[in-house]
C-alpha cells in the first residue's frame, strides 16, 4: 500500500512540474519521503518500473480512498484476527460497489448484447447480477414496512450510484466522454491489480473454512474487472463512426455492372475519412488524459469490427449483383484495408475474414452453398438469405432455392 501511495504522490509531483514547463527528473519523488524510507526509495528506483507520464497509473480520488480504507481494514485484521472474515467481506463489498458503479455509469447499454460480438462474458454478467442482487437497493423510495427479514436485508444494501451531472457522455467532440470513461475504467483496473497483490496476505489471515469465499471473490470478481473495458469502450466506438451513413451510401451503389471496374466506390473514401476524424479526436482527448495502449487497441478493434460488419450488412442489402459487381466488392474492401492499415497498427485486422468469406460465398455453386450455410452460423438470417436470392436466385430452380432457404430457417430456429 505504501508503494501505491508513493506512486500516486510521485505522479502528482511529476505532472505539476510538467504543467509548469519544468523538466521532472526521476529523483523528484525523494522530497516526499521521510529519511527512514531512503533505503526503500533507492531500491524502488533501481527497479525496472520507472514512473513517468507514459506509464503512470490512472487514478481517481475514489480509488485512493478505497485503497486507504483497505489499509485500515488490514490493520484491523492484524489486531483482531477473529473477525478477519468479516473484514475481508466488507473489503469485497467496497470493490463490488466500485465495480458496479463504473458499470452503471459507463457500461450499461441495452444494445451491445444484440450485436452478437460477445462484449461481456457470461462470467461478467453473472458477477454484475450478483452484486446488484446482494448489494444494491433498487427501490430506496419504497415504504420500509415489510417483514422483518426484508427490513434486515435492506440494511445490508446501499443506494444505486448516480453519475454527476457535470460528466457529459453525449458530446461527439469529447468522443462521448472518452476521457471520463478512461479515468473511471482504468482506475478500476488499477484497483483490481492492487487487490491481486494483496491476495496472499488476505489468504494468510482468512479462516480455512472461509477460504472458498476469498477464492471465489478473486476468480469471479477481481479477475473480471478488466473485462468491463470491452462494453464501456464499445459505446464510444459505436457512436464515433457514422455506420448508418455508410449503409445509405452503399445502398446507392450499382452492383449489377457489366464490366470490371478499376475505381473503388465513394463509400470507401467516406468511411476512411470517418476513421481519420476518429483518430484526430482520440489524439485530442489524449492531450487531456493519457490513453493507455490497451484502451487504444480496444477502441480501434471495436471500430474496425463494427465497420466490417456494417460492410457485410451493406452487401446483404444488395438486390442485384453481377460477377463484375462481386469483383467491385472485393476491390472496395481491399482499398479499405490498404488505407486502414496506415492509420492503425492493429494486426490482424478484426473481422477481415468475416467480410472476405462473405464476398467469396457469391461464387459458390448450389451444393457448395448448402454446406457453406451450415458451416457459417456467424452470419445473420438476412445475410444468408441474400446470398441465396442474389447469388443463386437466377441460376437454380424454385425447389432448390426453397431447400436452401429452409436450411437457413433451420439454423435460425434455435435462436428464437
Structural notes for this entry:
By secondary structure, this protein is mainly alpha-helical. The chain is built from 17 helices and two strands. Helices cover 63% and strands 1% of the residues. It has a two-stranded parallel sheet with strand order 1-2. It is elongated, with a radius of gyration of 27 Å. The model is unreliable at 26-52 (pLDDT under 50). This is VPS50 subunit of EARP/GARPII complex.
List strands and helices in order, with pairings.
Blueprint: H1 2-19, H2 38-46, H3 61-79, H4 84-107, H5 122-135, E1 136-137, H6 148-155, E2 158-159, H7 178-205, H8 211-220, H9 229-240, H10 243-251, H11 266-288, H12 293-316, H13 323-340, H14 352-360, H15 366-375, H16 381-392, H17 398-412
Parallel strand pairs: 1-2
Structure, briefly:
The chain is about 65% helix and about 0% strand. The protein has about 425 residues and is an all-alpha fold.
Average pLDDT metric = 82
Order of helices and strands: HHHHHEHEHHHHHHHHHHH
User: Radius of gyration, Cα only, in angstroms?
Assistant: 27 Å
Largest sheet: 2 strands, parallel
Give me the number of helical elements.
17
- Model regions low in confidence, pLDDT < 50 over at least 5 residues: 26-52
Strand content: under 5%
Structural class: mainly alpha
Trace the largest sheet across and list its strands. Answer: 1-2
Number of strand elements: 2
The residue fraction in helices comes out at 55-70%
Distance between the termini: 51 Å
Shape: elongated
Protein name: VPS50 subunit of EARP/GARPII complex
GO molecular function, one term: SNARE binding
Pfam family, one: Syndetin_C
Organism: Laticauda laticaudata (Blue-ringed sea krait)
Amino acid at each position: 500500500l505504501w508503494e501505491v501511495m508513493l506512486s500516486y504522490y510521485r505522479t502528482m509531483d511529476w505532472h505539476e512540474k510538467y504543467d509548469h514547463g519544468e523538466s521532472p527528473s526521476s529523483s523528484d519523488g525523494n522530497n516526499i519521503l521521510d529519511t527512514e524510507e531512503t533505503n526503500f526509495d533507492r531500491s524502488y528506483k533501481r527497479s525496472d518500473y520507472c514512473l513517468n507520464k507514459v506509464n503512470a497509473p490512472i487514478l481517481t480520488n475514489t480509488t485512493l480512498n478505497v485503497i486507504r480504507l483497505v489499509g485500515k481494514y488490514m490493520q484491523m485484521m492484524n489486531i483482531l484476527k477473529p473477525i478477519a472474515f468479516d473484514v475481508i467481506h466488507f473489503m469485497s463489498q467496497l470493490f463490488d460497489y466500485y465495480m458496479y458503479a463504473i458499470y452503471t455509469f459507463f457500461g450499461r447499454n441495452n444494445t451491445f448484447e444484440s450485436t452478437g460480438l460477445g462484449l461481456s462474458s457470461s462470467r461478467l454478467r453473472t458477477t454484475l447480477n450478483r452484486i446488484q442482487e446482494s448489494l444494491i437497493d433498487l427501490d430506496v423510495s419504497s415504504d420500509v414496512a415489510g417483514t422483518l427479514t426484508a427490513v434486515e436485508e435492506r440494511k445490508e444494501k446501499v443506494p444505486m450510484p448516480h453519475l454527476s451531472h457535470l460528466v457529459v457522455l453525449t458530446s461527439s467532440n469529447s468522443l462521448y466522454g472518452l476521457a471520463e470513461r478512461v479515468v473511471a475504467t482504468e482506475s478500476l483496473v488499477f484497483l483490481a491489480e492492487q487487490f491481486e497483490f494483496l491476495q496472499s496476505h488476505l489468504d494468510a489471515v482468512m479462516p480455512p473454512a472461509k477460504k472458498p469465499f476469498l477464492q471465489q471473490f478473486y476468480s469471479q470478481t477481481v479477475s473480471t474487472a478488466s473485462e468491463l473495458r470491452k462494453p464501456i469502450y464499445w459505446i464510444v466506438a459505436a457512436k464515433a463512426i457514422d455506420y448508418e451513413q455508410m449503409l445509405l451510401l452503399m445502398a446507392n451503389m450499382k452492383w449489377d455492372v457489366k464490366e470490371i471496374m478499376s475505381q473503388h466506390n465513394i463509400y470507401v473514401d467516406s468511411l476512411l475519412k470517418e476513421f481519420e476524424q476518429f483518430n484526430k479526436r482520440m489524439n485530442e482527448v489524449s492531450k487531456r488524459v493519457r490513453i493507455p495502449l490497451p484502451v487504444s487497441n480496444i477502441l480501434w478493434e471495436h471500430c474496425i469490427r463494427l465497420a466490417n460488419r456494417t460492410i457485410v450488412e451493406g452487401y446483404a442489402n444488395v438486390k442485384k449483383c453481377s460477377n463484375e459487381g462481386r469483383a467491385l466488392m472485393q476491390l472496395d474492401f481491399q482499398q479499405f484495408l490498404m488505407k486502414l492499415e496506415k492509420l492503425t497498427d492493429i494486426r490482424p485486422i478484426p473481422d477481415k475474414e468475416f467480410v472476405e468469406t462473405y464476398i467469396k460465398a457469391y461464387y459458390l455453386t448450389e451444393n457448395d452453398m448448402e454446406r457453406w450455410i451450415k458451416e457459417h452460423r456467424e452470419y445473420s438470417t438476412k445475410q444468408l438469405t441474400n446470398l441465396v436470392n442474389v447469388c443463386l436466385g437466377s441460376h437454380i430452380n424454385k425447389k432448390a432455392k426453397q431447400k436452401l432457404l429452409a436450411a437457413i430457417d433451420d439454423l435460425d430456429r434455435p435462436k428464437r
